[in-house]
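User: For my dataset I need records formatted as: sequence, then structure tokens, nothing else. Please produce one.
Assistant:
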Amino acid sequence: MSTSTQSLRAALAERAPGAVTEATEGDAVAGVRPRVVVAPGGAEEVAAVLAFADREGLKVLPRGGGTQLGLGFPPSGGDILLSTARLNAIVEHAPHDQTVSVLPGLPLADLRAALARTRQWLALDPPSSPGATLGGLIAASPSGPRRLRYGGVRDQIIGVRVALADGTIAKGGGKVVKNVAGYDLPKLFTGSLGTLGVIVGATFRLYPLAAASRTLTLRAPDLAALGELALRVTASQLVPAALDIAGTSDEDTAIFAVSFETGGDAAAEEQASEARALAGSLGATAETLSGATEDAFWERLDAGLAPPTAGAVGTSLLLKASVVPTGVANWLARLGAAAREGDVHTRWRAHAGHGLVLARLDGDAEALIALVEPLRAAAHAEQGSLVVTDAPPAIAGRVDVWGPSAALDVMRGLKARFDPHGTLNPGRFVGGI
């Protein structure tokens, strides 16, 4: 469609009244600035916008809280930025069934606050800002430390409603945890980065909030020993909620932390004591944290991989390596060696219980680019993979941020089935889908 921005705004306003504005530089996605921003007020308006764009050959970039826009290749086109900001509500909370249905623009932080009143929570703790929305979390599927005990987005989503590129509204799953009938749209759309459709509603399973928690922390210079300790904890009868190893290239030691969430203080203390015993000589200087001190510790870890502040010299990348748990220490050793060779500063956090490592690399752009493939090869050697989850557009366009995928042909087939005209997030996903 060849038309002026004014005409495009008018056409979209017919489908989403009062919700269309001209895009600004702040609306750019990986360096691509859309022409207009539309914020539909309901699923039907989302569907109408998509049907119009698909018919007219326009490209649509979905956006939730904007916390995951650094993930993926720069889009190959972008006429309309579709914001879910107005789709912001809890549709239904069934405390006795331990489920909640939400609209996609609802921030995770707001949902947590609402669920806390019934002592329940959605057990997701992604490494993103408080503005992260439920739709964005489904689309990007980030994982946090508690995935070890509760699983990730795919494990907790049980129903989804989506608007497809042609304007069809489809749904899959249900409102009860035991529902497994039908085509598995919830898992299909989890991690699809908005390339198959726009999520307009979702239902999740919930968990009771723990009555008590304790975190055992210790420091040691030997990554291999800390990795072995992590394996001993996961192989024991203990039930950790999170198990992390974190450090930076500025420090000679790394910190080990394992948390336990239980029904009472005595049980939490007992598990922390057993973990200290498993640590052996490593546990000589261990501390057991609780209450506000424990909360502050995990908040510092969460903030440890934040991007540099505005005006910082150099460039920054965030890598996610997924390896087998036995390979965590080996991959971290390779990261340290590569960073020293390339004169790159690193900050990293390994969810050692399930083998996911996040690493922030700061330094010269060319040095960072040169490190991606060697570190990917090191992840492959540990039966894993590596994805660049946050990169400036100039770098995201020069490296393979996703890496190879054995499922690429299947993924291309799904894209052709759900979005044959390439209307949604074109070029952003694996293989340039």
